Amino acid sequence: MTPRHDEDPLDPHGHLDEQAVDGALRPPSLEEFGGQPRVSAQLGLVLAAAQHRGAVPDHVLLSGPPGLGKTTLAMIIAHELGVPLRISSGPAIQHAGDLAAILSGLTEGEVFFLDEIHRMSRPAEEMLYLAMEDFRVDVIVGKGPGATEIPLEIPRFTLVGATTRAGLLPGPLRDRFGFTGQLDYYDAADLVRIVQRSASLLKVALDDASAQVIASRSRGTPRIANRLLRRVRDYALIHASGRITPPVASAALDLYEVDELGLDRLDRAVLESLCVRFGGGPVGLGTLAMSVGEEVETVEEVAEPFLIRQGFLMRTPRGRVATSRAWAHLGLTVPASRVDLFTDPDA
Ligand SMILES: Nc1ncnc2c1ncn2[C@@H]1O[C@H](COP(=O)(O)OP(=O)(O)OP(=O)(O)O)[C@@H](O)[C@H]1O
After folding, report:
1. Is 195 found in the same domain as 318?
2. pTM of the predicted structure, to 2 decimals
3. Which residues does the annotation say bind DNA (predicted)?
4. Which of 17, 26, 165 is the best mutation target for the ligand 1 pocket, counting ligand atoms within 8 Å of the beta carbon and taking the most?
């Protein structure tokens, strides 16, 4: 049987993979960017004032967990300013020369989006200080004692740096950003609107109650909301004649092991390991990550912030510790040896 691609209006010929569909769902303007009202309003003002003065806006730092819209905001900034966008990432810039090549190739007023800015090499970072402040880079020509620095003027640009770990940025780099937007997890009402917008772009009928089922399991993250919507759409297509209802949405998400609070396999593996294997901790992050077969960064940047926010896990100087809520969520009883930890002495 020939596969049918015509189900997807964003992908009529079947050329777009899932990531491309994700990109197609990105809101193009601040007005369409749902949620984050504080960051949106502050950023809007920075851009409007710069445009009013006819100046290139200050550099912008966006921080927050993955999937909350940092790349989307960088694209929106360029779009609102009507300038081109150049994209790179910290790990891709290992030598100062890589950065010099990018910066000298920018056009006047261009937005330069540098993702994972905390993972840039030290020499590149130092070059960036100068570029951000004086719109100049010092290119080193030659080697050893005969090496000379040649100053090179670069066009004025707006750097949009993104990081999941603002705390890892050296002070001098952080200080050179004129505006810092701290993105936080989205509340359910915002996610409902985001998922409804995506559903309408995908030409999928989605009632309020079903949108709420998806939003409540999306860990406060638009990228996850869009992904779950696509999984629910698939499930409805195969099992419910394409009709999404709250029970259909719940059944789909159960199948994909996303529970009612939005915890996925990795989150539960981390909690289970912490509670069962390590008796609730404290346990070091490296050991915890190894016990679930994941990279330290993944556990630290993807699972942990959400588990902490949900009150399942605490970071302590001696390691990660489970809360009583973690045992309860796993359907386990807090071991007798831990009970006193969670008992309020004044109760
Ligand atoms: N405020 C929003 N409104 C609507 N959709 C959004 C919003 N924020 C993010 N999205 C959607 O979520 C997806 C992920 O967003 P984005 O790639 O900007 O996240 P990110 O913070 O840059 O993630 P990472 O740190 O992993 O690069 C995008 O495809 C976009 O469609």
Report:
1. no
2. 0.85
3. 315, 320
4. 26
